[in-house]
Amino acid sequence: MTDIDRVLRDNARVSLPDDGFTTRVMGSLPPVAAMPRSWIHPALVIGSAALGCVLAVVLAPAGGSVLQGFADLTQLKAFTPAAFTALGIGIALLVSALVIAIETD
Question: Which of 1, 11, 40, 68 lies deepest, with the highest CB count within 10 Å?
């Protein structure tokens, strides 16, 4: 540690007299509101997205699998039932990710 670092650290530890200013300001602030659990909203969004994905796979047409849908999309065959299923799952996951990213709680 250099001398300037030591001087600055020692100087930062010295408390400044404020004649009760800090106590008055802290006393005039409103009480802290109870914070809702921050994990509930993302858990609900992720759970809903997972449930939507499961339902999309279960309710998809019997002839097309999700992997076949993604293969169809890569080959620009966007109007097959399997492609619609894969696209729906992808959009559901994208929207869920956007909701979680935008949420500012």
Answer: 68
